[in-house]
Amino acid sequence: MAPALGIMGLFFAGPIIWSVYIAFTNKALTGVGAQHPKWVGFANFTHMFQDPLFVHSLVLTAIFVIGSAIIGQNTLGFLIALLERGKNSFVTRALNTFIIAAWVMPEIVAGFCWYAFLYQGGTLDTFLQHFGLSQDWLYTTPMLAIIIANIWRGTAFSMLVYSAGLSDVPAELLEAAKVDGASQISLLRRVIIPLLRRSIVTNLMLITLQTLASFTLIFVLTAGGPGEASQTTPLYIYQQALQLYDISYGTAMCIVLLLIGALFSVVYIKLIRVEEVG
User: Fold this and answer.
1) Which residues constitute the domain of residue 262?
2) 139 lies in a domain?
3) How many CA atoms lie within 13 Å of 91's alpha carbon, on the beta-carbon side?
4) 107, 189 in Cβ contact below 8 A?
5) What burial class does residue 126 get, using C-beta atoms within 10 Å of its C-beta: 0-12 exposed, 13-18 middle, 19+ buried?
């Protein structure tokens, strides 16, 4: 195990430890901080929570994660999997092909597709001009635009998770519930969802962590604009660390984002354990 542990320590633990160290210095990509970084303690973290743009980016990140992952991808993926359960028609296979194609498509390609669809003069705008509704959707509703684009791209993952979970639901149990007079809503609420609780929690954890760190799709569509209207925390980190060269401040924000992701993971894992105990 020693070689494997050494490789993991070098490529995983090493960069994390180095990043934590950098976050407590004034390390920069240019200037004095690049040549002679100094230990500044919690100065970066103190500045961070006094920075209104960082707090604003956290709020937008929360809206983006809740809207596109927890509500959007999770709900839509579950509904598609539920509607397709037990069906093997040509339409179902074709629909799955399109949904999965959106998921496997490189994120930058998906971003440019949605940019071409939503920008002023794009496909959607050209169509709506016939009804007098022409506008630049990426400028007037940037958060809605990136939320919808991320739902479109990521729903396939949730659909696959729930399709696998639904395939394990015993058909005899559903038939017995129907014989006892259970309606479709009761069947869903009292039988299917309780049996899928583990799949639901696992899916929520994975798509939350993935969406929390989403960068490319947002950068291609709006680059955080107009102004800071769609500047989520990953984009603000990029701006501070790689455009303004304040690598220590950007690293400190990365650590906070990592801790937020870890907090979500702990909550979801606790939910799984509670479900297992119950």
Assistant:
1) 46-277
2) yes
3) 4
4) no
5) exposed
Helix (H, G, I), strand (E, B) or coil at 228: coil
Give the CATH number for residue 150: 1.10.3720.10
The structure tokens listed for 249 are: 């401040």
Domain count, the chain: 1
Per DSSP, 196 falls in state T
pLDDT digits (tens, 9 = 90+) for 139-155: 999 999 999 999 999 99
Q: Residue 105 is inside which H or E element, if any?
A: none
Q: Give the pTM.
A: 0.90
Task: Say if 22 falls within a structural domain.
Answer: no
**What pLDDT digit, counting tens, does each position of 192-223 carry?**
888 888 899 999 999 999 999 999 999 999 99
CB-CB contact of 149 with 111 (8 Å): yes
Q: Is residue 10 part of a domain?
A: no
Helix axes 14-23, 247-277, angle to 10 degrees: 120
Separation CA 86–CA 22 (nearest Å)? 53
Smallest CA-to-CA distance from 217 within 103, 131, 137, 134 is with: 103
What Å distances lie between residue 48 and 38, 42, 224, 247, CA to CA? 18, 10, 18, 13
Q: How far apart are CA 81 and CA 203, in angstroms?
A: 13
Kindly state whether residue 23 falls inside one of the protein's structural domains: no
Taking residues 255-277, what's their average pLDDT? 82
